[in-house]
Write a structure and sequence with these properties.
Blueprint (H helix, E strand, L loop, with lengths): L2 H21 L6 H23 L8 H24 L2 H8 L1 H13 L6 H20 L5 H23 L6 H20 L8 H27 L2 H5 L6 H11 L6 H19 L9
Helix pairs in contact: 1-3, 1-9, 2-3, 2-8, 2-9, 3-4, 3-7, 3-8, 4-11, 5-7, 5-12, 6-12, 8-9
């Protein structure tokens, strides 16, 4: 199997577990979860960088800082929707990230996008309209938060792609938590909720599992074209629907399921039609 696809498969599994953990902490403010998730990632990545003798700040510091800023905003948006709307619906909104990654890649990395891909983009947005219209738990606010998070993540991922041959993968990783954990810590002061021992175990697990996910995702984007490896993340859709139904008692109108399928159909075919003219193996 292609190395980039293999890396993204493992990243997807770890990210799915993180989503479930976040869903299990509805009483902890999203920014507080950002703080715990990122301080653990920062400490682990810092240790690895120092142990290997790499320059922590890297060479392209402005772009790396932007990677951290976009990643922080995207992560906060994701945690908000994961806590407040059904798991499968939140995941569907997050699935727009690969599509936005492709769109941003057209501008930043000059990757080509065919005319028919715009049709599938339209199909995906029709699915979003159906979900918002027939699921009362998803209002305009959560819709915009979710799409904004995906858009910010798309910028972060394309910066990773641009810097793939210019920076060490651990340098690309550390700028995200290096920005997010101080921001999360400062903003959490205003509405801090003291976590229980059980909460702490989950919060620490979020940080550890995310570290594995970030590592495999970064290696994936360094190994293969963005649009090709991003599609692998859709393999979790069936699982999050089942998990949401079994463990979180989340049920949907048939039209909402149709909306989810339209989003998946539109984004998957959009990415499949991307011209795979570059490989970085």
């Amino acid at each position: 199997m292609n190395r980039g696809i293999t890396f993204m498969f493992f990243a997807t599994i770890f990210f799915m577990v993180v989503k479930i953990f976040v869903k299990m902490l509805p009483h902890i403010p999203p920014m507080e979860i950002v703080f715990f998730r990122c301080i653990i990632s920062f400490l682990i990545t810092y240790y690895l960088l120092k142990n290997q003798g790499h320059d922590i700040l890297g060479k392209n510091r402005s772009l790396l800082m932007l990677r951290g800023i976009f990643g922080t905003i995207g992560l906060y948006c994701y945690f908000v929707i994961l806590q407040d709307i059904p798991l499968a619906t939140a995941s569907t909104l997050i699935y727009f990230t690969p599509l936005f990654t492709t769109l941003v890649g057209v501008v930043i990395l000059k990757e080509k996008m065919k005319t028919i891909q715009w049709f599938f983009l339209f199909i995906a947005f029709i699915g979003i309209v159906i979900i918002q219209g027939f699921d009362p738990r998803v209002n305009i606010f959560y819709l915009l938060v979710g799409l904004s998070g995906s858009f910010c993540a798309a910028f972060a991922y394309n910066i990773i792609r641009y810097l793939r041959d210019r920076e060490h993968s651990l340098v690309l990783m550390i700028y995200f938590p290096m920005v997010a954990f101080p921001v999360g810590g400062i903003l959490s002061i205003f509405n801090w909720v003291q976590p229980s021992f059980y909460d702490l175990i989950i919060l620490i697990s979020i940080g550890i599992f995310t570290q594995f996910a970030q590592y495999f995702m970064t290696k994936s984007f360094q190994s293969e074209k963005v649009s090709k490896v991003s599609i692998v993340s859709y393999s979790e859709l069936v699982f999050v629907v089942l998990i949401g139904n079994i463990f979180f008692n989340e049920n949907f109108d048939i039209l909402v399921y149709i909306g989810m399928l339209l989003v998946t159909f539109g984004v998957v075919f959009n990415i499949l039609l991307s011209k795979d003219d570059k490989k970085y193996l």
